[in-house]
Amino acid sequence: MIRTITIRLALLVAMLVPGAVHGQEAEWQSVLNAARGQTVYFHAWGGEPRINAYIQWAAREVERDHGVRVVHVKVSDTANVVSQVLAEKSVGKATGGSVDLVWINGENFASMKTNELLAEPGWATTLPNWDYVDVENKPTVVMDFTVPTDGQESPWGMAKLVFIHDGARLAEPPASLEELLDFAKANPGRFAYPQPPNFFGTTFLKQVLVSLAPDASALENPYDMTIAAETFGPLFGYLDELHPHLWRRGKAFPKDASQMRQLLADGELDIAFSFNPGDAAGAIANGELPPSVRTFVLDGGTIGNTHFVALPFNSSSQEGAKIFANFLLSPMAQTRKQEPEIWGDPTVLNVGALPAHEKALFEALDLGAATLKPENLGPVLPEPHPSWVGALEEAWKDRYGASGG
Amino acid sequence: MHADDAQTGLRLHNVSVRLDGRLLLAIDCHIRPGSVLTLMGESGSGKSSLLDFIAGHLRPDFKAEGRVVLDGEDLTARPAQERHIGLMFQSPLLFPHMSVLQNLAFAIPASVKGRLLRREMAEQALLDVGLAGFGARDPITLSGGQQTRVALMRTLLAEPRALLLDEPFSSLDQSRRAGMRKLVFRLAKAKELPVLLVTHDREDADAAGGMIHWLGRDDPGNGCTDKAQP
Amino acid sequence: MIRQGGKPDVPSVLIALLMAGPVVAGLAGTALPAFGYLPVLGFETFSLQPFQALFAEPGLATSAWISFSTGLVASVLSLAIVLVFMAGWYGTRTFGRVSRFLSPILSIPHAAAAIGLAFLIAPSGFFVRLLSPWMTGWDRPPDLLILNDPDGFAMTLGLVAKEVPFLFLMTLAAMNRPHLGAYFKAGATLGYGRMATFFLIILPQIYPLVRLPMLAVIAYATSVVDVAEILGPTTPRPLAPQLIVWMNDPDLSMRLMASAGALLQLTISALAITFYLVLEKFAGIAFKSSALTGKRFRQDRNGQIASLLPMLLILVLMALSTGLLVLWSVAKSWWFPAAFPQVLSIDRAVNAVLMAGPALSATLTLALLSGVFATALTLWLLEARGFRKKRDSKKLKMLIFLPLLLPQIGFLFGLQMLFLATGLGGTLTSVLLSHLIFVFPYAFLALSDPWNRLDPRYEKAAASLGISRSMIFWKIQLPLLLRPVLVTLAVCIAISVGQYLPTLMIGGGRIETVTTESVALASGGNRQYAALYGLLQLLVPLAGFTLAALIPNLVHRNRSALQMRG
Questions:
Q1: How many angstroms separate the most distant Cα atoms in chain B?
Q2: Per the CB < 8 Å rule, is C389 touching B57?
Q3: C252:A47 CB<8 A
Q4: E strands along A181-292, which residues?
Q5: Cβ proximity of A118 and A152 under 8 Å
Q6: Which of A172, B47, C54, C261 has the fewest CB atoms within 10 Å, counting from its CB?
Q7: What ipTM was estimated for this complex?
């Protein structure tokens, strides 16, 4: 019901803008017509059952309302999808590609963009629900790791690095990287980060890098070999000091954030982190974390970004994929996504600008005691330019990843 | 001896069997309808290979020469199924997954149509060997003698034109052998079948009453010309 | 001798093509990129650059060493445990009990076993929970490097736990021959101890049949991916999982390096096998010279008991692991150090099973189809060869087992490229084909022995009754072999369900089975899901084996000769 209202409202909004309106409406209608009966292979990280369930729900909705079948292809690393599309391009497969839509951001997006693996620019801004996207206050919805999106990917959710601790075991969590180091020294084996190039592990490296780099602004530009050593210096100095006090003394690492969360639940770790401010609340609701768990951030801010869905150039069901992307942007899908028990992922929409009914949906959300209020989330540190990431991961692997202990 | 006589029965024309180039046996023989040739020899003398050759089961690592002619037809190149030569082994080898009656009905040629008729034939066969009422039984619940009798009837129901017996009495108790021998040879004679009996029990040979051929022996009393020895 | 009597031996030729074709094509498809040639991706000049890049990788030597050492140690240890146990207990009641428990363990796929084992031995695992805090004083899990340890001990343990049941059943099958009991008696009569009799008299007779499975175990263990993902080290990884990482790198030139790495993997597995063959030679000489000394080893009671312990340990480990899979699959909250879940929830388990629907149906489809195809092909081959009265030729046997004697990753890379180029990549058909390559050898292994043991005189008797060849097959041979045929089918299902790498690589992520899912979830945060998928992985083969045991009893219920005894 809400959805039909949403669509009507979208149409209404569209009608208020004179000129191209009818053209746009007709164009969308033709997308809707073309999409019916299509199957969309949605390649998305599948390591989190709650998110998988959410995607299944969205797929059911879209199939029922628009006759578009969405198949969630669960990937363990989005880089694999990029390589798959790249391989298809190399073989000359310009149509009928195996990936119709991909959950993506950052270096993977940059890689697809530079390799020209994406569908034509601008499609994302033609989606009816684009109008609600908070371009003004959330600049990362159009600047993905400093790379302009050019309408080649449609925002799905907001991510911000938050730390999670069990209030019952650790009352006063560290408030800065220095305090985190002190904590690790005082409590050996109770802190860990996932092994890069896992997304979350790399994010932790980036957090330290951005916080400690002598010239953080250099990171906004593409990778520069001449300043790499001095830029990475403080980071590795920090890690060298931290590693002996890590979980398993840094000889083994959690595979990803969800394993880290499990280790927190087991009591092996005292601090975990997540890219999803609502993660802890969701995990409590699911019984995966004890109710005493709380979220915290570091002074000076933490890395934040937006995650998107993108269309490969050779997607065989472009229309269906657009309809799914549009549905994911709808206020109903976005509120449901933000519910801690469902997923807890913050919205990309401008809630304040939504029509009253949709706004009420968001206001009714109970984010739970473990979730920080938006005003307590602290400043957002920008992601470094994606080209730094590869160099960072290589340098990390050389230093720690192949030591065998 | 009529000209017809030479045409009927089982003829083994200059048959020789070799394994890895070593000659196992050589024989040239004619078994007339209703008569029995008993083949005697030590183990390893190639008796079973000869039977395999005649029935069409010889493994390719054995090399055989010569021809098998039954009632004037050359069977040498035919598959086993088309030779119409009945075979009985040391053990009755009733198919364990079938009932006694199913074993018998299985042997009746497909040209005999009608379930009822086939069933009656099988029942009659059981009656003939004193096993009426055993049709529904699991073969393994029968005694050795009973099983051999069923196996005999199974062989005969397939309407063979010759019978090969590979020590069929050796698994029976001494006390039952005489009766079984009498039964087998009586039925074979009644059906005018040429019979080749392989054994190393002299009593079998005596009961058969026909020619006796000693493999690997070349004396004047020998039933067939043995080509193994010069 | 493929041709005989003018008619080509179609099944033999076909099987040879089916087995050797993909392997050869896959090897070529791996070797060419390793030397820089991969035209579909625009690499058209031969060079040694991929190898240079490979050897410049940090930690490569460590990766290679872990693969070699864990694989070889796990294999040799498994064989030793099995043989020593056979020597000490064959024919006893304990032996009967142990073998009854070991057979179902064989049906547990590697990944599920590894997940269960991880639940058991992790610092926050069941063992520590059971003893904490009352004995250990730990109210928090200790910071112990048990899983993913850099030397690969956990991985070795996981491999041993899975390979012992396999080698046990292979050895048991080899011992299924006449007069074996008499040899044991003969040894005892001559005054030799039970274990000495086994090693000096029995083993030399049965070992030729155990050797091929053992070589397959070495090839598998030195190149394993799924067990390594769950239990193996990560700093660095063993070679095979590391290759997967490179293969999936967005930088396509990494594929060349990955291919070079796959050749290195082939070399490592070959080295491990060679090393084992040398070891085997020395062991053979040692046994022979021991036999000549006339030493009787009469007092072997202690050895006997010692031989039982590792076997029991594995049984207990696997039983507990499976139990933990069940427990975790219904546990909503289970905080350390509780030895039993605080909150149980069936709802979520049911929910997860419903969500697993597509993966489960893909698993079943692949398992059933590859099982039926492999079993049918095996029967066809055996029947045709039986008809031609051919013995199993050594060449054909080698060909059939070839896919098992090579590390999967060595030719799956090339095969993946091939499927990609033909546009068959990521389809159920291509995955089915890749499963078949690995399922068929096991079908042949499981069925050829029972087939060859079937009294050939049944066939002769039937043929002499004038029964046609096809009727003999359908009415005599198949019903008589119903039990082994169904067991073969169940084995095929178990093998297919366990296939992780072929599904992952040939399926390109599009074909999801409970196995790929459970490996993906194993390292993730939700143990309940991981356990559930592990359990599903285990239930499918178990159902297969159960049916294989029940159906023949039902079909042959009035035929006591065909009932299972005991």
A1: 57
A2: yes
A3: no
A4: 271-274
A5: yes
A6: A172
A7: 0.87
Judge contact between A88 and A58, C-beta under 8 A: no
Contacts of A283 in chain C (CB under 8 A): 525
Helix (H, G, I), strand (E, B) or coil at B76: coil
Mean pLDDT, range A272-276, rounded to an integer: 91
The b/e string for C180-190 (b: 16+ C-beta within 10 A; e otherwise) is beeebeebeee
CATH code (residue C518): 1.10.3720.10
Per domain, the residue ranges of chain A are 2-157+307-371, 162-304+379-401
Say what angle helices C239-247 and C253-293 make with each other, to 10 degrees: 160
State the DSSP H helix or E strand holding residue A23, giving kind and residue range, or none if neither: helix A21-35
Is C515 part of any domain?
yes
Amino acid occupying residue A263: L
Chain C interface with B: residues with Cβ < 8 Å? 4, 388-391, 455-458, 460-469, 475-476, 479-480, 482, 556, 558-562
Q: How many CB atoms are located within 10 Å of the residue A56 CB?
A: 15
C203: left (phi over 0), alpha (psi -120 to 50) or beta: alpha
Residues of A in contact with C425 (CB under 8 A): 98
Domains A2-157+307-371 and A162-304+379-401 share a fold: yes
Q: What is the model's pLDDT at position B228?
A: 41
H or E segment to which residue B144 belongs:
helix B144-157
Contact A337, A345 (CB under 8 A): yes
Strands B62-70 and B10-19, sheet pairing: antiparallel
> Encoding tokens for residue B109?
């040629």
Any CB–CB contact under 8 A between A244 and chain C?
no
Q: Which amino acid is it at C438?
A: F
Q: How many CB atoms lie within 10 A of CB B104?
A: 28
* Alpha-carbon dihedral C445, C446, C447, C448, rounded to 10 degrees: 30
- The domains found in chain B, sorted by start residue, are 3-94+159-226 (3.40.50.300)
H helices present in C35-109, as ranges: 49-56, 60-89, 93-106
**Is the alpha carbon torsion for A372, A303, A79, C112 positive or negative?**
negative
Q: Are A158 and A306 in contact (CB under 8 A)?
A: yes
Q: What is the pLDDT of residues B100-122, one digit of tens each?
A: 999 999 999 989 888 999 999 99
Domain count across chain C: 1
The tens digit of pLDDT for each residue in A9-66 reads: 554 444 444 444 567 788 899 999 999 999 999 999 887 888 999 999 999 999 999 9
Query: Is residue C370 domain-resident?
Result: yes
CATH annotation of A162-304+379-401: 3.40.190.10
Residue C46, Cβ neighbours under 10 Å: how many?
Answer: 10
Q: Does domain A2-157+307-371 correspond to CATH entry 3.40.190.10?
A: yes
The predicted-structure confidence for A70-118, as pLDDT tens digits, reads as follows 999 888 778 878 888 887 887 788 888 889 999 999 889 998 998 899 9
B and A touch with 3+ CB pairs <8 Å, answer: no
